[in-house]
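User: Please predict the structure of the protein below. I'd like the answer in C-alpha coordinate form so I can feed it into my own downstream comparison script.

Assistant: Understood. Taking the following sequence of 104 residues as input:
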Amino acid sequence: MATTAATLTITPVHPAFAAEVAGIDLTQRLDDVTFERIAVAFDDYSVLVFRGQALSDEQQTAFSERWGPLESTVRTVVSSGPQRSLKAICCSSLRAWPRKTSTE
Protein backbone atom coordinates (compact mmCIF):
# COMPACT_ATOMS: atom_id res chain seq x y z
CA MET A 1 0.00 0.00 0.00
CA ALA A 2 1.40 3.40 -0.97
CA THR A 3 1.59 6.35 1.41
CA THR A 4 -0.22 9.41 0.03
CA ALA A 5 0.39 13.15 0.28
CA ALA A 6 -2.80 13.73 2.29
CA THR A 7 -1.03 13.34 5.67
CA LEU A 8 2.35 14.80 4.68
CA THR A 9 3.55 17.90 6.52
CA ILE A 10 6.77 19.79 5.86
CA THR A 11 7.80 22.19 8.61
CA PRO A 12 10.81 24.47 8.10
CA VAL A 13 13.36 24.30 10.90
CA HIS A 14 14.87 27.55 9.61
CA PRO A 15 13.62 29.74 6.73
CA ALA A 16 16.66 28.97 4.57
CA PHE A 17 17.88 25.58 5.75
CA ALA A 18 16.36 22.26 6.87
CA ALA A 19 12.79 21.08 7.26
CA GLU A 20 11.10 18.30 9.20
CA VAL A 21 8.94 15.87 7.24
CA ALA A 22 6.11 14.19 9.14
CA GLY A 23 2.88 12.32 8.53
CA ILE A 24 4.37 9.62 6.35
CA ASP A 25 5.62 6.08 6.88
CA LEU A 26 8.83 5.43 4.98
CA THR A 27 8.44 1.68 5.52
CA GLN A 28 5.68 1.89 2.89
CA ARG A 29 6.11 2.90 -0.74
CA LEU A 30 5.34 6.59 -1.30
CA ASP A 31 3.06 7.50 -4.17
CA ASP A 32 4.55 9.75 -6.85
CA VAL A 33 2.79 12.93 -5.66
CA THR A 34 4.08 12.46 -2.10
CA PHE A 35 7.60 11.73 -3.27
CA GLU A 36 7.54 14.80 -5.53
CA ARG A 37 6.52 17.02 -2.58
CA ILE A 38 9.45 15.61 -0.60
CA ALA A 39 11.82 16.19 -3.54
CA VAL A 40 10.66 19.82 -3.85
CA ALA A 41 11.19 20.28 -0.10
CA PHE A 42 14.70 18.87 -0.48
CA ASP A 43 15.39 21.38 -3.26
CA ASP A 44 14.03 24.18 -1.05
CA TYR A 45 15.67 23.27 2.28
CA SER A 46 18.68 21.04 1.40
CA VAL A 47 18.28 18.96 4.58
CA LEU A 48 15.20 16.95 5.51
CA VAL A 49 14.60 15.33 8.90
CA PHE A 50 12.39 12.23 9.09
CA ARG A 51 11.83 11.43 12.78
CA GLY A 52 10.72 8.10 14.19
CA GLN A 53 11.26 6.01 11.07
CA ALA A 54 12.28 2.42 11.85
CA LEU A 55 13.38 1.21 8.43
CA SER A 56 14.92 -2.13 7.61
CA ASP A 57 17.96 -2.16 5.33
CA GLU A 58 15.70 -3.14 2.44
CA GLN A 59 13.23 -0.32 3.14
CA GLN A 60 16.05 2.22 3.42
CA THR A 61 17.44 0.99 0.11
CA ALA A 62 14.02 1.18 -1.59
CA PHE A 63 13.48 4.78 -0.42
CA SER A 64 17.03 5.78 -1.39
CA GLU A 65 16.67 4.29 -4.87
CA ARG A 66 13.83 6.74 -5.56
CA TRP A 67 16.52 9.48 -5.62
CA GLY A 68 18.71 7.72 -8.18
CA PRO A 69 21.16 4.85 -8.60
CA LEU A 70 22.95 3.76 -5.45
CA GLU A 71 26.69 3.26 -5.21
CA SER A 72 27.95 -0.02 -3.76
CA THR A 73 31.02 -0.09 -1.58
CA VAL A 74 33.91 -2.45 -2.18
CA ARG A 75 34.08 -3.41 1.50
CA THR A 76 31.45 -5.19 3.54
CA VAL A 77 30.25 -4.60 7.07
CA VAL A 78 31.65 -7.13 9.50
CA SER A 79 29.47 -7.75 12.52
CA SER A 80 28.22 -10.65 14.57
CA GLY A 81 25.57 -11.21 11.89
CA PRO A 82 25.89 -11.94 8.18
CA GLN A 83 28.11 -9.69 6.06
CA ARG A 84 26.25 -7.07 4.04
CA SER A 85 27.28 -4.80 1.22
CA LEU A 86 26.79 -1.11 1.91
CA LYS A 87 24.97 1.10 -0.57
CA ALA A 88 24.85 4.87 -0.54
CA ILE A 89 23.52 7.72 -2.58
CA CYS A 90 24.66 11.30 -2.77
CA CYS A 91 21.59 13.52 -2.49
CA SER A 92 22.14 17.14 -3.34
CA SER A 93 19.85 20.01 -4.13
CA LEU A 94 22.38 21.04 -6.76
CA ARG A 95 21.39 19.90 -10.23
CA ALA A 96 24.96 19.70 -11.51
CA TRP A 97 28.31 19.80 -9.79
CA PRO A 98 30.12 22.06 -9.99
CA ARG A 99 27.45 24.58 -10.80
CA LYS A 100 28.67 27.42 -12.97
CA THR A 101 27.97 30.96 -11.91
CA SER A 102 26.83 33.68 -14.25
CA THR A 103 30.31 35.25 -14.16
CA GLU A 104 32.08 32.13 -15.45
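That's the full C-alpha coordinate string. The radius of gyration is 16 Å.
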